[in-house]
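Lecture notes, part 5. Sequence design as translation. It can be helpful to think of inverse folding as translation between two languages: the language of shapes and the language of residues. The source text, in structure tokens, appears below.
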């Protein structure tokens, strides 16, 4: 399954690495602000907004029958067995889905390796309806949700925001318009220039 992911990425997202910062690494994407930066906001209000915006964006960018790759990166000490993660067990609706979970060692290029550890990439192939999105969105791991059906990648980088990238503007125009007021102001000028340009890009066939 890891080979299937690599083949998909090479065809649909050539040159793109599933690494932070995903938004800045992609040609087309939107960076959303999901946490309220106002220091007067209580922790509870902050969490409520993060939950609402992240789940709303996920539901709006995925349909139940969409084919997904759930990609998790993990640094782990070699003496430990890296094949059992509670996040996958808790994140799927049916245990049979875990049959599609694979793991491989990887070499990261973003300088995140920890001395004395090895880096692993777990890949779960499934339908969007097979998972409980909240489990993956709010885990402690670095997870990218690759949507093969829509050619998008959903990356919740932390409680401040999340990235949704695509291989064409056409894939994200609906999200850009519907949730425009959630776009991170720091990157708004660049995002607006991509989606408001006279030349629109279409998905690769």
């Amino acid at each position: 399954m890891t080979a299937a992911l690599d083949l998909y990425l090479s065809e649909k997202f050539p040159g793109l690495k599933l690494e932070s910062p995903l938004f800045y690494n992609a040609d087309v994407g939107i960076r959303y602000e999901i946490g309220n930066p106002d220091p007067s906001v209580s922790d509870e209000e902050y969490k409520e907004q993060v939950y609402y915006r992240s789940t709303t964006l996920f539901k709006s960018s995925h349909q139940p029958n969409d084919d997904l790759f759930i990609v998790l990166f993990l640094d782990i000490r070699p003496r430990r067995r890296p094949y059992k993660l509670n996040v996958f067990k808790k994140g799927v609706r049916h245990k049979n889905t875990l049959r599609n979970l694979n793991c491989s060692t990887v070499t990261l290029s973003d300088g995140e390796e920890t001395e004395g550890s090895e880096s692993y990439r777990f890949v779960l192939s499934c339908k969007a309806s097979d998972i409980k999105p909240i489990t993956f969105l709010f885990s402690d791991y670095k997870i990218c949700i690759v949507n093969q059906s829509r050619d998008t990648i959903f990356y919740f980088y932390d409680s401040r925001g999340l990235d949704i990238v695509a291989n064409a503007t056409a894939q994200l125009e609906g999200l850009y318009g519907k949730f425009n007021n959630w776009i991170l102001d720091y990157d708004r000028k660049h995002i607006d220039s991509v989606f408001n340009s006279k030349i629109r890009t279409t998905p690769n066939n």
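The translated text above is only one of many valid answers, since several sequences can fold into similar shapes. The chain has a mean pLDDT of 89.
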